[in-house]
Amino acid sequence: MSLLHTYVLPRLRPNLEVFAQISRPRHRIASQLNFHTSTPLLRILPEMAEDQPTGLKANKGIELLTWGTPNGWKASIILEELKAAYNKDYTWQGINISKNTQKEPWFTKLGPNGRIPVIVDHDQGGFPVQEGLAILTYLTRHYDPEHKFSFTDPLDVSRAEQWMAWQHGGLGPMQGQANHFNRLAKERIPYGMQRYTGETERLAGILDTHLATNDYLVGNKYSIADIASFGWVHALRFSGVDLDSFPNLKKWWESIVARPAVQAGLAIPSKSGFGNDAFLEKMKDDKEFAEKEHQVAEQIKAAKEQYGYKYSSP
Ligand SMILES: N[C@@H](CCC(=O)N[C@@H](CS)C(=O)NCC(=O)O)C(=O)O
């Protein structure tokens, strides 16, 4: 048993956003400790101090306030794509959602919903934008002059908006609830587990069907429509959905995850352990993790059987 399991994790608030736990690198977990700081920990103090932002730190360009989650990745990926395509640099700060930094007044003044991601455009008088769809469209409207990741044809603009709205109203909330009921809920509620895992599967099926005849969601071009859903698809295995059952979706995911800018975006604020690739690796390498994950999968399976769940997606 590591220090992480015996000492740190039990001390974390029990109802933390699950992504906050699994995506936090070891040295950041150390910042949860309030016992006497040992020498190795002292070496990382400056970084730990940065873990608790108390306000904005840039005065020009885009500043991103985020954490390593499927919603956070939407913003970091488009910013990395814009950086690769146009040399547009940006500043970021890690908002540790397990410490509720996103509920602090300086943050909610910028993002009233108290959730990440939020961007602030210092070149537009400190204009703040919350919500993934709004961030993706804001950034491309202002900083994608060649429409490398966005569209000019009004019908394609509408198509992209439709997929992004679908992600906001469907995939994100349903998969988020699947994670909650499968992993975080204080009680095991089989109805909730099978309902939300089932909905996530249904929605994965919608993407899979669309991608059977399209390489990307809109106009056969990688765009903000894809970026909006990518982060959630990247975490499907972790949510109890087998990506291998959706071959077109898997192919789409593989082509996007291979992009250097996507890899860079996934590493903001730090590399996560719950993407489909890292998840499979950890299942191979970490026996204890694999055992726990098998238990979760068995519970989901039993919940589906209990309520006669049948996969169906038009
Ligand atoms: N619809 C929002 C959702 C944002 C959201 O739910 N963010 C989560 C992280 S994935 C969060 O900040 N959770 C912390 C909290 O609920 O306080 C978007 O797409 O940006």
Automatic annotation (TrEMBL):
Residues 59-147 form the GST N-terminal domain. SUPFAM superfamilies: GST C-terminal domain-like, Thioredoxin-like. Keywords: Transferase. Pfam families: GST_C (PF00043), GST_N_2 (PF13409). InterPro entries: Glutathione-S-Trfase_C-like, Glutathione-S-Trfase_C_sf, Glutathione_S-Trfase, Glutathione_S-Trfase_N, GST_C, Thioredoxin-like_sf. Residues 153-289 form the GST C-terminal domain. This is Glutathione S-transferase II. It comes from Decorospora gaudefroyi.
